[in-house]
Backbone:
């Protein structure tokens, strides 16, 4: 890995986000999303399906107590947060039953992770108290041997790890660990971290390469990267080794999931008699959904459930970096290219089909039936940052930025109160209501989902946005996203202070104030792919080098230096690879990192009748939606006449009659905030004007 | 119904088809499809799922005998047809069990109907013998009370008519009746007709408006039109009245299907508590699939399962005609317009979604996920002819022609050996294999289906094509389709002989030789909608009138008159209503009644990169596919460059690079005869050439 420049996250508390845009998003998460989700976790949101998450922990805690303190009265703690009282069910009625999805514990873990990040940016004594109480409850649910998954604590420990393929125990462990590390790093409190370590130790005793240990691995990945994070927080090699074991074991034959589910193996045997080769392929199809069809180092194409896939690849990238594992890195690179060259929407969304919430085949990127799950795009950001940590290459950061500002932010309403699970690039509400093929596509955000993976995942990502904006190596601060912040970086025992100010994503001017006198600080500034020519001032006496899309700046820093960067943000038309059938003859409008879309509320119904005049000059205008300011784009174009003679379904073809109109584009992430209405990202390109009607 | 000109089918044996095109299709049905399907009905086609159809009749027959002749040995008849011996299972092994779909009996009925029509055009002693034997078997399965549905004969008569909603008894009765009438009209033999009458009498005793009789109606329609046909063949009013009862009863409240399935009613009661109005709508949605959501006279939009819908509408049109029922006719007219103005593919296919094999909402006509079932298009032809019988208006005949030459014929391979159930307008084989959303779309025809409605339905329609080409009133012969034939028509007690010759659908010249001296024969010739200007010679001394798309010709006929019609067939571009999202910016190529398509085998892969130069001159060329001659269309156009710089998924937009190519179109109905490959009907229209790169 000669050309690698390893780098790592900045310590969470050494970055203070000052950015207007991101601080707004973070405040929304802090003031709306985190409290709302706490209510949801406690089944107190009206008209939303109950989560049962905290209820399950309470039941598990109660069962633990009943076991330990037989006969003693059980006292239910009160959960009060900002005036809401938990009103737990009467303990008499806390029947020893598990409710909700098998992975319901993870709702808590994502929430505590989001709360942790939020606390690093904004002290909030009440949030911290509630979080501490919740942690106490969760820890009280832990079993004496360290096991901590309420589904099996409540339903019977004898079945522990009996269905790795479907039952998400290791997934819940992974999220718990992520939350525990985050809370420890944010607050210094190690109560939950210790619980996670005890659970990890239990798992490390159970699984592993040593004879007699279980050879299974997670059905839904995440434990792989969580274990790396636990290793990095604690220094305990056994966690790193367990992650390696899970990664290396995955997809080896005989398939562990076949051994676990002998009924599958039987199917295989029948096929065997027909054709061994055909059988191999059938087998592979069978476990593609779980990325367990082949050993990970032999995987070439991103397949299966998109969230699982990018979580796996993130863990692979972590291990490739820490173990300097070339073949694992090569697999990551292939899978990265498979995604970004063949399977990613222009919004950074991934997962083109709702069937299995999965990747479709290369270049199959339908806009109106897209799945493009918010969580999958979040996972793509995880993967991107980990690839950046191996080699700072703007290829990764460009995708990270694309996913962040577009697909991911679209997942949350501008008021933080409702969420998208699925992020289509074209919506006709009538079709969502009447066409069962599009029932997964919602035309408005939902308050909460029974399977509520996306909202809390979004909360933890937005709260920790700074750890994606910057990474560092010994002497270098990498700026991947231009997010306004105050950063303290230690270079050779001294502290350099870097203050970044920008009005991203609306304006491309960036001011970087550096106080690094006496340090060998190197600044590595990403040059975004959407900007052809940038300008920079303040480089007097500096040595600069452009490499892999980063501008490296070294100089003998003064008491204070000021760099002024300018990335002109011009409205741009984007074309898709001609292999993408759905986008042929169309273009998408972008400006800076923002992908734009048309909405019916601004452009009238039947958006498909609009076409864009590619030769015309677009204009940028200030606007706002629901009180949130943004730059809008107005692009001249045409509206095709909507009626045909006599309303016939078919007629002798003639050039379309069309009238000039202004197409009013809004940022994609802001869509569906003003009512249910049509939306469209890819717009037909009109013929040149001299040929129109 | 003042403006109506009622007309009826010609007697089957008074038309002899001489047409090269249709005779070819009919010979294919006679020599390939009918024998093949007989084998299929007897479970003797390798690699095709068994039908069990004749087996079920054999079991029912055996059970009948066992009941009647207890103790006597059962002797299985041998079924030998063109060298194939039936090899029936050892009767010891004919277990008293029903196999296959609940409507499996209808396979026989459609087959016998096809055989009947075929016999009217081509005497075939062996076919007639096999048909007679099969009829003997079926009649031997009939119960003493007249009941004749093997599913309940085998599974227990106590459950007869207990699940009208799902169990297709009345559907099987309907098909049996259609087959019986056809066989009687073709051969004069009434063995099966009598069986059908006995079954009809049984049903008429069971269902009806009189108190105490069952108030149900068919879940899957067809009995309605079959009963009308039985009435017309026998003159028995009770069959007409039973049809009326089924039609009038349908969709009335309380829903019969709710009474039959009380578990549905319960759901309704729960909803009741919330909102009566919402509930009405929910109810309607619930039975839209079966067109039983509203009384038929209140139905405005064609909804639900497309085959069922057009079978129902056909029965409604029959009754509207015979009973001169204005409100029923008005409903037919509304439903007709709903289909042809909002829900029909350019190929005459209907049913846009595979979910429920159903109509989608207005203008939702996706090309690549189309259902467009062969049987639905056949049913649309039934409906069209019945509307024509009320009022000869080319609106109906134009659609009939469109469906016949395109969607319906596409259902059968050129060698008559394989069939499409689903008829998409755009196919990418990779998507059919890899995208579960398109698994219903096949890129090649299949040999036989477990649910084999389409192949025998196609056989019966093609064999009876002449009854769609012509109808008659007292003095008028209506020519709806230009099919070469010798027709004998009785006018005021004398016989007029009309001989029609044409090379349709490839050439628009039609010669009509009339020997009608002394008769008051009126000829009504359809003026096709695809022809702007026709020419006609031989009208000396004739009185002519153009009305509703027909040219009416009356004259003092000579010993022999010759009319020469000419409908120029020029390649034409068709545009879709702008409300059809999937076709915006695209056009379809047609010539005469034929819709054309592009295939990969002629045009290379990635058909979506082709665009058509609408201003260029197309050419017509002779060609052939699998030995079948046809007129092909070559239209100048362009192929967009397939590769982008560096293979990136997204790039700064630029006008597409494209090179001129000749787009080679073949008739749609001939697609997928030369291998699995891409196909596309709707083609993007290119910008005018002066703007192309």
Residues:
């Amino acid at each position: 890995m000669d050309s690698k420049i390893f780098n790592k996250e900045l310590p969470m508390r050494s970055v203070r986000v000052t950015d207007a845009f991101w601080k707004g998003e973070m405040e929304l998460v802090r003031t709306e999303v985190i409290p709302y989700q706490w209510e949801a976790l406690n089944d107190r949101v009206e008209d939303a399906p109950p989560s049962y998450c905290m209820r399950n922990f309470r039941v598990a805690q109660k069962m633990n107590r009943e076991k330990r303190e037989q006969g003693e009265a059980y006292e239910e703690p009160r959960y009060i947060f900002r005036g809401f009282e938990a009103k737990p069910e009467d303990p008499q009625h806390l029947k020893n039953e598990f409710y909700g999805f098998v992975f319901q514990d993870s709702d808590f873990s994502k929430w505590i992770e989001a709360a942790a990040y939020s606390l690093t940016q904004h002290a909030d004594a009440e949030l911290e108290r509630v979080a501490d109480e919740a942690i106490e409850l969760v820890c009280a649910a832990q079993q004496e041997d360290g096991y901590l998954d309420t589904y099996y604590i409540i339903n019977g420990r004898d079945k522990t790890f009996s269905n790795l393929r479907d039952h998400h125990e290791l997934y819940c462990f992974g999220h718990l660990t992520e939350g525990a590390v985050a809370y420890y790093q944010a607050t210094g409190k190690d109560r939950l971290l210790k619980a996670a370590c005890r659970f990890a130790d239990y798992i490390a005793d159970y699984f592993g390469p040593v004879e007699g240990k279980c050879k299974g691995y997670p059905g839904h990945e995440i434990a792989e990267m969580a274990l790396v994070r636990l290793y990095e927080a604690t220094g305990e090699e056994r966690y790193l080794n367990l992650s390696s074991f899970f990664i290396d074991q995955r997809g080896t034959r005989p398939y562990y999931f076949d051994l676990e589910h002998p009924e599958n193996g039987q199917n295989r045997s029948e096929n065997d008699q027909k054709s061994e080769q055909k059988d191999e392929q059938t087998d592979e199809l069978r476990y593609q959904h779980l990325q367990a069809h082949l050993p990970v180092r032999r995987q070439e194409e991103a397949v299966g459930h998109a969230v699982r896939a990018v979580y796996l690849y993130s863990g692979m990238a972590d291990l490739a970096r820490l173990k300097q594992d070339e073949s694992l890195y090569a697999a990551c690179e292939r899978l990265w290219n498979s995604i970004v060259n063949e399977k990613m929407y222009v919004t950074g969304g991934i997962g083109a089909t709702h069937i299995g919430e999965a990747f479709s085949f290369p270049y199959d990127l339908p806009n109106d039936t897209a799945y493009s799950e918010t969580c999958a795009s979040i996972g793509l950001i995880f993967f991107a940052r980990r690839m950046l940590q191996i080699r700072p290459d703007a290829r990764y950061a460009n995708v990270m930025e694309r996913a962040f500002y577009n697909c991911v932010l679209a997942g949350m309403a501008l008021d933080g109160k409702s969420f998208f699970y699925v992020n289509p690039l074209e919506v006709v509400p009538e079709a969502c209501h009447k066409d069962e093929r599009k029932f997964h596509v919602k035309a408005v955000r939902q308050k909460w989902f029974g399977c509520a993976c996306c909202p809390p995942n979004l909360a933890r990502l937005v709260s920790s946005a700074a750890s994606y904006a910057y990474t560092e190596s010994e002497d270098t601060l990498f700026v991947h996203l231009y997010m306004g912040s105050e950063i303290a970086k230690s270079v050779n025992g001294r502290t350099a202070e870097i203050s970044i100010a920008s009005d991203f994503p609306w304006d491309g001017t960036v001011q970087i104030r550096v106080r690094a006198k006496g340090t060998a600080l190197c600044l590595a500034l990403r040059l975004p792919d959407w900007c052809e020519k940038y300008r920079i001032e303040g480089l007097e006496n500096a040595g600069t080098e452009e490499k892999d899309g980063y501008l490296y700046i070294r100089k003998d820093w003064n008491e204070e230096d000021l760099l002024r960067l300018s990335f002109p943000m011009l409205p741009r038309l984007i074309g898709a690879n001609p292999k993408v059938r759905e986008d042929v003859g169309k273009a998408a409008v972008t400006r800076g990192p923002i992908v734009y879309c048309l909405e019916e509320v601004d452009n009238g119904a039947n958006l498909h009748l609009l076409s864009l005049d590619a030769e015309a000059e677009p204009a940028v205008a200030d606007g706002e939606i629901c009180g949130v300011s943004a730059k809008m784009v107005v692009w001249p174009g045409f509206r095709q006449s909507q009626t045909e003679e006599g309303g016939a379904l078919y007629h002798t073809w003639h050039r379309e009659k069309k009238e000039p109109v202004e197409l009013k584009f809004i940022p994609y992430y802001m869509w569906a905030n003003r009512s249910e209405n049509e939306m469209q990202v890819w717009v037909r390109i009109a013929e040149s004007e001299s040929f129109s009607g």
